[in-house]
Amino acid sequence: MDCSSEIAATSRGAGRLYYAGVELLTGRTGRVERWSIPNMKSRSGGNRILLNTLLIAAVGILILIATLGRGLRPSPSAMLIGKKFPVIEADGWLNGKAPKGETLTGKVLVIEAWATRCGPCRALAPEMVKLQKKYQDKDVVFIGITDENGPLVPTIEEYLKTTGIVWLNAYGAYGTISKLGAEYIPYVWVVDSTGTIAWTTESGGAIEDGIKIAIDHREKLMAKSQDVSPVAPAN
């Protein structure tokens, strides 16, 4: 039995009857306005729908504002362009020993942050392998870094093997990745011959574009150094 049926059973001649603050009986006829409560529910439901719609719209606007604001504000990693790449700190290395500073002097570095759990990283691997083979004879050194640590070394080794990655890879490099401000992976930094970050994933374009930028910069520096003639000693 609905609420209006129960109220219909009340005595006639009551003059006025209220239910939940809504007048149900009017005048002396005792006629019950059966539509009153359903109408009240309908209005209440409509108000809830309107409120929910407004809330959804407000949340959407906030997300849009946050997204636009985020798009206008460079990420910490993107802001590293022109700054020195930090020393890689890691728990260990695979495919060789930790590189020494002097062995990297004058080299262009292509450094990728990745993880075995990352599908896009695995999808990027063939391109990275292709680029490494193309530029390995041009003093371009590839290095991988992952935040995954010791217990996952066997998984990391299997990943490197199945993807054909033969270059140095650091594991347990969470501190370095965090310092670089990478907010997602895979993330690539191209470091020029002076140790300065010349390109990142957020620079736009292909990774090879970044490599070419760094190589071009190195060639310009070499040409400039060769143009400087030694000063003849004074008599």
Sheet-strand content, in percent, reads 15-25%
Give a count of the beta strands, DSSP E runs of length 2 or more: 8
Binned, the helix content reads 40-55%
CATH homologous superfamily identity of the largest domain: Glutaredoxin
Total helical segments: 7
**Rg result:** 35 Å
Query: For the residues shown, what is the average pLDDT?
Result: 80
Query: Would you identify the CATH architecture of the largest domain?
Result: 3-Layer(aba) Sandwich
Walk across the major sheet and give the strand order: 3-6-5-4-7-8
Distance between the termini: 119 Å
- CATH class category label of the largest domain: Alpha Beta
Q: Any idea of the CATH topology of the largest domain?
A: Glutaredoxin
Query: Any idea what the shape is?
Result: globular
Structural category: alpha/beta
How would you explain this protein's 3D organization?
It is a single chain. This protein is an alpha/beta fold. It folds into two domains: 73 residues; 149 residues, 3-Layer(aba) Sandwich (Glutaredoxin), CATH 3.40.30.10. The protein is 44% helix and 16% strand. Strands 3-6-5-4-7-8 form a six-stranded mixed beta sheet, with helices on one face. Strands 1-2 form a two-stranded antiparallel ribbon. Strand 7 and strand 8 form a beta hairpin.
